[in-house]
Amino acid sequence: MELIDKLEILGDAAKYDASCSSSGSSRKGSTGSAALPGICHSWAADGRCISLLKVLMDNRCLYNCAYCKNSRSSDTKRAGFEPQEVYEITMNFYKRNYIEGLFLSSGVFRSPDYTMEKMIKAVELLRNNGFGGYIHFKAIPGASKELIERAGFLSDRMSVNVELPTNDSLMLLAPEKSKQNIFLPMGQIAASITSNKNNFLDKDKFAPAGQSTQMIVGATQDSDYQILRLSQYMYKYYELKRVYYSAYVPVNQNKLLPVIDKPPLLREHRLYQADWLLRFYGFDASEILDERFPMLDNSLDPKCVWALRHREFFPVEINKADLLVLLRVPGIGNISARRIISARRMGPLSFEDLKKIGVVMKRAKYFITCSGKYMNGIFLSTPQIYNSLVTYEKPLFLPLGMQTTMFERENMENAKKIITGVY
Amino acid sequence: MENAEFIYICDGTIEGLLSAVYKSYYSHENVFDIIASDDFQSSFAYEYRNITTDFKQAQKVAYSIKSKISRQAFETVVNVWLTESELRGHHILEYIKLGFKKGRDVDCMLTQENVAFMQMMSRKVEFEVHRFLGILRFSKLHDGSFFSSISTDYNILSLIAEHFSQRLSEDRLIIYDEKRKNAILSDRGEWILVNGIKMGEVTLSHEETSFRDMWQRYFEAIAIKERTNKKLQRSFIPVRYWSNVTELKKELQ
Ligand code: SF4
Question: What ranges do the domains of chain B cover?
């Protein structure tokens, strides 16, 4: 088989893994460094950023996970790289500035250890030839501790995919993978990251850009609340840098899987928004969702929903509130909040001033006061605010055709009642 | 004329700009704007003065901006100059004046139109720099060097040079600015900026097409059909950049 055909098969086979971004670490080689975070090199036709060469070492697999295109019983073209081939392609793509590095994953070919060793060889070739670019290494569930350890010292980031948020779902769709096979290596990686954090030399650092994981959304009955709670737990106890959410794309026919005609992209988007609130805005999962409302809302982003349910928290006084409070205002993000804090040191801010410093008011205006006054003196009821917030939702992230049908009137009326509590 | 307003004309380089700032301080003339000689168009409203670039003076001004205001402010000045936008010299003068008065706090004075403008323009330049670190493409030439041709909104060549020079620190590279006819030449980690270049045809290495084809094929394979969203793609990488991007060029035809 020609190399270009292998690349096509093994690139195609890797595309459902959402994690892609390079996030910056201190490694430096004679060719390249992994120092700058988040360089996107291209955007595919689906609008997703291409930063790394994302490929599988091999897409032959012993296992039979129901949701996976590469599972043993699925009917798909198979191929496997030799380490030398991965090296050649990565180095040449990197020098041409197509990519920021390599994202290497694999099906379980022959055995977890056999597969891991082959992957490690490819990565070793790169590092031994001066490759300082970013390497994201996907650990194979069930591989030995020693191999995971070796891989970590060659990589910038490691990950083990959780895929499904509950044990029941795992038992149902991926019975050959156990919860233990996932959380054991994750724990090992977390421990190795922590204990090698302060080593000085690049080669003595273990996955200096941390570890990440991915969950598939919409292949099972699990709720957003279950998903978010698990994310929060992993951020806390496994030193996770990122959790990626991947809308389930039906690739296999299987009676265990839901029948859907479109991947749940809006749900995926909302989960990313909620995840953002966990990581950067000081929210707790239980503030965003609970047993009563276990699903994120379609019509509004999670921060707006929280604000409408917590009117007692508002208005926030722009000239007094501290950072974490400002960050709770819909429409005020990290950049705006920091600008407000620096600008008000020079004197109290008016609504005019806020506009001048680039704070977008369309959402924020319902929730803030400047020196005790609402903008134009408006004070609206919760359902009224809901109506205006909804009109600002511009779902560019959704493919054409999915945008208009999304919020049918009736659904929106229901959402409004649930969020505002006014029936 | 007693209160004549001056426009200083420099050679267009950063050093030229800073020399002009220097002169404006010591001549006590009322300088309204600093422009590059390429942009010169005379008007009766102003007096014009040609400024010769003086590296020592430029260095002094750079040092004062960094120490009396901040390093950040110096970067802002450089970035705004590289936008080549109208009245950039005017805004830079105002900003420096205010900065010398207020020190590093000048960057908190976001309600001042001038400060907001400077920061906004500077951010645009930073954004373009970041974008080009990603979307610039090299081709390997027959002599083993790497060549890239770019067309940028702002004059960012000098801001991306170090990154690529270090990235390919074992190779020779050329990055050519199609609009401004400038180029970065880098040889194993050391680079220079050369002005007024005429680019001829380049000869590709024999393996170049095979790697381009592989990249193209990979690029098409990695998109998930069920998620196709060209609008989103275009919002990230506007079509005006596509002609120099290996994997997108094809779609323009
Ligand atoms: S082990 Fe991985 S590659 Fe194999 S079927 Fe399961 S998810 Fe797919």
Answer: 5-128, 136-252
